[in-house]
Amino acid sequence: MAAALTRIYHVPAYNEIAHAARLDRRPDAVYALSRVQPPMNPHGRVLALDLGKKRIGLAISDGLGITAQGLDTLARINKRTDLAILAKLIQERSVTQILMGNPLHMSGREGRQSEWTQEFARDLEKRTGIPVKMWDERLTTVEASRVLRASGIGIEKRKAAVDQLSAVILLQSYLDSAAAHTGDQR
Asked: Is the pLDDT of residue 30 over 80?
């Protein structure tokens, strides 16, 4: 007889569900456990923005707050329209927190770009009522460009994808940091 292997999941609650299923071997109990909804991130979905003068790179977390997925890059029109589009996206995607890249100087000091980004963040928070957290984005664009260059993507496609990938890198670093601070086993 082959030994049963225990499947280890990244989220502790999944391990508890699997453990409960092994303890109760009745078919109806296993069926009931299979209908259990996966645990949701108590903080909800996080939307990350990589704000630029011409485009806004966007990424959103999964419902568990484990992974970041890129969304279509938003071509900037004007501040009012950009805020309206973002507010609609936030409502449609059930976002409970917004993460905005803070373009600090390599020394860690804030510059003109950082002040402009923080002003946009305040306006977005005022428009949506959703808290905006500023997150250090130093080198995210450099890293995104490096990854895209290494992948062999052409220059034109690379230019279009760099903002989205920057937002994904920004959000994933935030999610990983939040997991490390809460002791979440991922």
From this structure: no
